Amino acid sequence: MAYRPxxxxxxxxxxxxxxxxxxxxxxxVAGGELVxxxxxxxxxxxxxxxxxNRLEEPxxxxxxxxxxxxxxxxxxxxxxxxxxxxxxxxxFHLYPHMSVLxxxxxxxxxxLKRSKPDADARAMDMLxxxxxxxxxxxxxxxxxxxxxxxxxIARALALDPKVMLxxxxxxxLDPELVGSVLKVMKDxxxxxxxxxxVSHEMAFARETxxxxxxxxxxxxxxxxxxxxxxxxPKAERTRTFLSRVSS
Length: 247
Fold this sequence. Notes:
By secondary structure, the protein is α/β, with parallel strands linked by helices. The chain has helices spanning 45-51, 75-82, 100-111, 116-129, 145-157, 175-190, 202-208, 226-231, 236-246, and strands at residues 7-16, 19-29, 34-38, 60-65, 68-69, 85-88, 163-167, 194-198, 211-216, 219-224.
């Protein structure tokens, strides 16, 4: 049987006016794989991630999710596809006036049309998974940043996505809270979730990623297994970047 990636980015370009921020990006993510994207600020990492569910509209190229090109089809097709791509941002984007449970059930009920009992049950399962079932009736302001981010992960998981995208999920957290979020991500990987992660958590990438991609200047400079990228990078730009972040 031919190999088919769960997520494939093909010849992706993105321009803002005369500024080209993504230049002919090709990237494949297999089912169950954790691909970690590193690189300096402004290298196009987050823009690439946002193009994967068309929060940013690509200028050209294709995004293929589980064999279907999400650049074609109707707006209804796009909305259906977006439910299959969970996204966790640097900011938590929780509704402050809603309890944790309601934050996790809202999209289930509106987008998936789940009944309240079904949505509540799914939400509690996902909150249990991220270690926060006991906070179901709390409000976001009563939670730490790490707890809020774990609620955001539970909310995305409750929609049964095929792929999870993480855009700097720990960068807004105090250092002592980072570990709780990384632990959830590690658990997701162990259970077979396909993940594309943009982050500066190099130790986590070295330990957990299946593959590491280094981007700079809107292009993929090189990619490989963590031991290859961190231990023996081929490109001078990669070596320079890693020497700066590890010094």
